[in-house]
């Protein structure tokens, strides 16, 4: 019987958070009860009986927005119940709806309507992350971190992740690449000093100092995404011209060392051993090997093709 439940869980994730909540518990859960509220039902639960979700990926809630929601709750009440899992008699834990939960406390409510589910820790984490990703006001770094946690802690591949959050692999990869940026630039995205479009342009530069230079210039001069993209192209063009410029005779050993350094950087960037071959006329080729169609697609996404 246990083996039959596993694929059911995966299918639910593929259809999003709502389906996961629908299928996260046994089919007989509506008959399952502790001595108190029935699992699988909606009940008024005391706020002091509910624990916050320890897997909640969002740790900062805007105080002004919470107060506005609290005032709305005072007038309209709770329109959409929160979702909890029952731990024991008169003890519950949030699965989703922490903003409503916190705003209800601010509003002075004693109880809140809650839909009771059963869920293990893995499902709790998955549901909390997926609900977080589906919020409209998340910044790109919060989304990227949630994607990363789903990949690492829920043991998903990028293709599976894309299916579960309704995004294609390229979009998922574009978010994940933001986490390679220096902390200062990630903070700038979070604080809305630059947009994801600015960041996607800056990340094409490998040198951290140059990344920070363009970032600071973009912030200080309030540059558009298109202007930053042009600065990046100009910088990369100058870098290419410098590499292609013939060196004086007698510097072959120095040139060889440079080629090795470029090979190492490219290998690190693409996650595979990149080879560079040159002749005496400084002509050559770059080889980027791949081992499967999936590996090729991964490399093409890095190149952004």
Automatic annotation (TrEMBL):
UniProt protein name: Chromosome partitioning protein, ParB family
Segments for region (Disordered): 1-35, 236-262
Membership in a protein family: Belongs to the ParB family.
Keyword DNA-binding: yes
Compositionally skewed regions (Basic and acidic residues) per UniProt: 236-248
GO biological process assignments: chromosome segregation
ParB-like N-terminal domain segment(s): 43-133
Biased composition range(s): Basic residues: 1-12
Gene3D superfamilies named in the record: 1.10.10.2830, 3.90.1530.30
GO molecular function, a single term: DNA binding
Domain of life: Bacteria
SMART domains to which the protein is assigned, alphabetical: ParB (SM00470)
Record InterPro entries: Chromosome_partition/occlusion, HTH_ParB/Spo0J, ParB/RepB/Spo0J, ParB/Sulfiredoxin_sf, ParB_dimer_C, ParB_N
A GO CC annotation given for this chain: chromosome
Record keywords, A-Z: Chromosome partition, DNA-binding
Transmembrane segments: none
